[in-house]
Specification:
alpha/beta, 8-stranded parallel beta sheet, 35% helix, single chain, 393 residues
Length: 393
Amino acid sequence: MSEDTVVVWDEALLAYDMGDHPLDPVRVELTVALARELGVLDRPGVRLVAPQPADDALLTRVHDPRYLDAVRIAPRDPLFAGYGLGTSDNPVFAGMHESSALIAGATVAAAEAVWRGEARRAVNVAGGLHHAMPDRAAGFCVYNDPAVAIARLLDLGAQRVAYVDVDVHHGDGVQEIFYHDPRVLTVSLHETPLALFPGTGFADETGGPGAEGSAVNVPLPPGVDDTGWQRAFHAIVPSVLRAFRPQILVTQCGADGHRIDPLADLLLSVDGQRATYVALRALADELCEGRWVATGGGGYALVEVVPRAWTHLLAVATGDPVDPATPTPPGWRRLAAVRRPGREVPPRMTDDVDPAYEPWQPTGEPNSVDRAIAATRKAVFPLLGLDPYDPRD
């Protein structure tokens, strides 16, 4: 296996542009610019690969052919309605099929490079459109690129693919697509569906008949900070991954759990997000010989958060993590100020938060985070042969 890291990138990925909309491609543009200025993309063993669009054969492994037809037709029909398109969440835009297929193709290229041993790790920061359903758009997502990539891995012979989603929103589309497939473990940590879109991702969603234990959901209450989030992550994710024994790890690394993100209610920091990426890489190294495919996802603090979070992701995937105290380069700060005037441009790669946490124990008076941990462990751990009350599991 090559020790290289593939970063799938082309400026054409910025064409996934819904206009005056929270999912603004400037966040991806500024991420790549920041990573480049910090030298992350010039590290030894880093290869930038331009993607090709996913063709219909790939897309229909996940999506209904009639839905693909609708995505193609919608921009040419001003009266078009249906399939989740033409809403405020999912407005129709020119080149919608082409740009969506390119993002899917980019994540597939990342997955293929890792599975075939051409790279140990691969990243597509423009990907992570995890809400798209087989027959409709949802939650700013037209084609579900993580699911398309996972389907491609299965076609290439993978028997155990683990998907971990750390976006603030439940990874509902990926779960839905593989809910009955025991070869795919979907794990999602997110704000409770009682408070946030998409309204799914309860602890008792554990996989369909024949695939019991293949879905793991950790719904967290509003207001959880780094210490609670890390406590929940480490109480659930390592155990279920070790029980599943994945051959490859696919992750959706949405940055919208940050405390200033405008669309959600968790209180994470860039430092806590960085710690999560380090933990995910360590699990890939431990369990699947380092095979890790990482995508972006949500994140709507376009200047203040997403570029720093995903530059940390790129750094962790390509070698040594960036020191949190590192200043953001002056050239990048000038670019960010030009691209989004009036936004606060962060001077350093840190929020000055220590994401240390106390490991979970099944004793004492539980708080809201511990109740969420206990609910998930009780629901799914026995299905995986684990003891929900043993902190060693």
